[in-house]
From TrEMBL, chain A:
Keyword field contains Disulfide bond: no
Principal cellular location given in the protein's record: membrane
InterPro entries: TVP23-like
Pfam families in the cross-refs: DUF846
Cell location: Membrane
GO CC annotation terms, alphabetical: Golgi membrane
Gene Ontology process terms (BP): protein secretion; vesicle-mediated transport
Transmembrane segments: 34-53, 59-79, 126-147, 153-172
Claim: Transmembrane is one of the keywords in the record: yes
Family: Belongs to the TVP23 family.
Name the record gives this protein: Golgi apparatus membrane protein TVP23 homolog
Keyword vocabulary terms for this entry: Membrane, Transmembrane, Transmembrane helix
TrEMBL record, chain B:
Main location (coarse class): Golgi
Pfam family, one: Yip1
Entry keyword Transmembrane helix: yes
Amino-acid biosynthesis in keyword set: no
Location of the Yip1 domain: 16-167
Lineage: Eukaryota, Metazoa, Chordata, Craniata, Vertebrata
Protein's membrane topology: Multi-pass membrane protein
Family per record: Belongs to the YIP1 family.
Organism: Apteryx owenii
Location of this chain's protein in the cell: Golgi apparatus membrane; Membrane
Name of the featured protein: Protein YIPF
Length: 207, 174
């Protein structure tokens, strides 16, 4: 039983899982929930596509609007209830106590002691990519609708911004909640990236 | 499908407004969205394929319902209500159900004819459903206010459902 040295992910190496290391490394880049990943992106992207192509597809404003609204609501439900939980292990909801006060709860799944991270990097990348870029696109649409005076589309665009922005905000708060400070998390991330780049450069110059 | 069952339970609660807190405790906005979309669709006049197909009216209904609900919620919060923002939106949205039923009945009656008799029938139906909506939402919302402020909270709700009822009553197909 040869124990292989893994240079990149040395955090959770266990002495007894020598054979599992290879499979674990390949699992990190494999997608565990293909259906969830597909639907995570499908609803968002198709809502944007329908919004852009509605003039060409059909001359009925109402059909476009209803389709976009349906897609946006399906996307909101799917991302909030299903894909966030499966792909990155985060969830958030609103809790109403018995005395009527409501507060928001943000949770992140703890990494188990085995080091068996249930979320793969590829999934995490897909999730955050979809989550961040789509609200920004809707904000761009909002400005374009405002400035080109296409006011009747403003209702749809505002809905898009609100629904997708809500999911974005909720998941960012879930992620940040464990570290309690958005700026410290950002500097952490940037610092890690910088370090990784310099280490990679060192490796290149050394070999 | 736990969400679907929750939505269905809330619809039943609106039709038989008992003093239970199920509507208030687990709020969700799916029911109001469905009701809003169906009401806006039913309030469309002409054919669905023309360029001038009442597009702005659809967005208008949407905006009136949601903006009106937000304003009422803000009003009740400013008056010192104990209900939260989304719970109030939830209740107001779900109580549009009787008016949606009234719209359906009106459209069916208008299929039969549009004379005085049909107008009287529609008037009666709309007034009955308007009363039902207002009573149902007041039953849930007025309790969160101190007793001398109840009228101040009920009045905007009355106005809100009155505007929707007016839109329904004055609807005439092309």
């Amino acid at each position: 039983m040869l124990r292989q040295d893994s240079n990149d992910d040395t955090e959770d190496v266990s002495l007894f899982d020598a054979d599992d290391e290879v499979s674990r490394r390949s699992k990190k880049s494999k997608i565990r929930h293909p259906v969830a990943s597909f639907f995570h992106l499908f609803f968002r992207v198709s809502a944007i596509v329908v919004y852009l192509l509605c003039e060409l597809l059909t001359s009925s404003f109402i059909a476009c609007m209803v389709t976009i609204i349906l897609l946006l609501s399906c996307d909101f439900w799917a991302v909030k209830n299903v894909t966030g939980r499966l792909m990155v292990g985060l969830r958030w909801w609103n809790q109403v106590d018995d005395d009527g006060r409501s507060h928001w709860v943000f949770e992140a799944r703890k990494v188990s002691a085995q080091g068996n991270k249930a979320s793969s990097e590829a999934e995490s990348r897909i999730f955050w990519l979809g989550l961040i870029t789509c609200p920004m696109i809707w904000v761009i649409f909002a400005f374009s609708a405002l400035f080109s005076f296409k006011v009747k589309w403003l209702a749809v665009v505002v809905m898009g911004v609100v629904l997708q922005g809500a999911n974005l905000y909720g998941y960012i708060r879930c992620k940040v909640g464990s570290r309690k400070n958005l700026t410290s998390m950002a500097t952490n991330y940037l610092g890690k990236q910088f370090l990784r780049q310099t280490v990679a450069k060192d490796d290149q110059t050394a070999s | 499908m736990r969400d679907l069952k929750a939505v269905g339970k809330k619809f039943v609660h609106v039709m038989y407004p008992k003093k239970s807190s199920a509507l208030l405790r687990d709020w969700d906005l799916w029911g109001p969205l469905v009701l809003c979309v169906s009401l806006a669709l039913m309030l469309q006049g002409g054919s669905a394929d023309s360029k001038d197909d009442g597009g702005p009216q659809f967005a208008e209904v949407f905006v009136i319902i949601w903006f009106g609900a937000v304003v009422i919620t803000l009003n009740s919060k400013l008056l010192g209500g104990t209900i939260s923002f989304f719970q109030s939106l939830c209740v107001l949205g779900y109580c549009v159900l009787p008016l949606t039923v009234a719209m359906l009945v009106c459209r069916l009656v208008l299929l039969a004819g549009s004379g005085t008799v049909s107008f009287v029938v529609r008037l009666v139906v709309v007034i009955a459903m308007f009363g039902w909506s207002t009573l149902a939402s007041t039953a849930f919302l007025a309790d969160s206010q101190p007793p001398n402020r109840k009228a101040l909270v009920v009045y905007p709700i009355f106005l809100f459902y009155f505007v929707i009822s007016w839109m329904i009553l004055t609807f005439t197909p092309q």
